[in-house]
Amino acid sequence: MAIEQSKSDISRTRILDAAAKTFRQKGYAATTLNEIAKAADMQAGSLYYHFNSKDELLEEVLDIGINRVHEAVEESQENMPADAPPYERIRAAVDAHLTTLLKHGDYTSANISIFTQIPEEIRQRQIPKRDAFSALWRRILSRAQKAGALRDDVDPGMVRMLLLGALNWSVEWYKPGKTSIHAMADHVCLMLLEGIGADEARRGTAADKEKVA
Amino acid sequence: MAIEQSKSDISRTRILDAAAKTFRQKGYAATTLNEIAKAADMQAGSLYYHFNSKDELLEEVLDIGINRVHEAVEESQENMPADAPPYERIRAAVDAHLTTLLKHGDYTSANISIFTQIPEEIRQRQIPKRDAFSALWRRILSRAQKAGALRDDVDPGMVRMLLLGALNWSVEWYKPGKTSIHAMADHVCLMLLEGIGADEARRGTAADKEKVA
DNA sequence: GTTATTTTCTAATGTTCATTAGATTATTGG
DNA sequence: CCAATAATCTAATGAACATTAGAAAATAAC
């Protein structure tokens, strides 16, 4: 047994995959254990050999989802040379976040899209995990700011929320094929750092501001 | 009867408000007619005098949600002088979008957050309405581009999806009090048009690019 | 104020679903 | 091969819920 993996482990994973996929598509309440079981080639009752309740299954899916994206973004920073330019660090983080979300994404997507609709008790337990992930992003942006790479007239907290919003929302519209995830990450960073305004527009804006002042 | 408003109309509105609020919080499947009825000071059975089914109620909530934000953004453009600078047009649109979402937002928020989890048939009927709204934003950005206000190395479609993502996601985190919605709209536009990178960072980035090339 | 109409309530009905208990089948260790 | 354990299945239970039908209450018309 080179790879320690009992039959139970295999079934468990199959169930979790099926659950993540179904929760993501239909939401928590609308997903029946029958659907999950069918997608995992089982009968509904058999799920209880592996999980004590629908809620426990949900919670494990959510945990996997947040952990994966957290770990991916964290590793993207650890794998970076200490003297990497701030721009590259941010780009690596955006890339890792998007890749986790869009490529192997049922768990993370499920976490994002059904979060507001799960039982209160479970949601409460998820909040600290989300906060920890949020803090990771805060550190990444704060480091860039200390390195002098960010303007000082933008609110870092709002930047973070808006950026994570733009990234997380991609699960609602991204379809593979057209644009690669890496290209998308590049694009996001370009927009984020340099803006989408033409140079003339920037001057125009500045002029407007003076006019008002 | 200056304001034509029968008792029926009043109840109907009360039910719709309650439904929007509850759908938004709990999701579609997890919301029971009992909850909606209680929030509207009624018994569950009484809802059927006004609506034929839970689905019909849902669909009306969704319609109101998309219509409100669509109309708000549309009016923001119509109320603008023909020679208004592109930056101001975009800012007005962002402001209108955010205000609708966050201020009187149960309907629009419900539409956004439960969309993926509603019955297939209803979702199909919502899609064209979403497309129409998306097209409105496409026109706004395309107009700015024709006016030479946008860089030509960004993909307008992706800009739109990322911007709408950042805006829509705000329903998940925005709490009134701290920052005003108008200030937030300004901030979004600043970031969007000018970017968050410091000037040195921009130069640094450009240098990196040359180094690679 | 009495009647007709509108609106709401009460009390079923039937369905769907999570969960359970016990039977059945597969897998593993000797 | 044979037991012992693990994994899955089958069928039943009970609760929650959308929906309905008919009674009751409120409102409007005259």
Greatest interface (CB-CB under 8 A), with counts per chain: A-B, 56 and 57 residues
Topology of chain A as a string of helices (H) and strands (E): HHHHHHHHH
The average pLDDT score of chain A comes to 90
| Shape label of chain A | elongated
Strand content of chain A: under 5%
Alpha-carbon distance between the two ends of chain A: 74 Å
CATH architecture of chain A: Orthogonal Bundle
Q: Return the CATH class of chain A.
A: Mainly Alpha
The largest sheet of chain A is: none
Oligomer type: homodimer
- By CATH, the superfamily of chain A comes out as Tetracycline Repressor, domain 2
Secondary structure class of chain A reads mainly alpha
Range of helix content of chain A: over 70%
Segments of chain A where pLDDT lies below 50 for 5+ residues? 200-213
Number of domains of chain A: 1
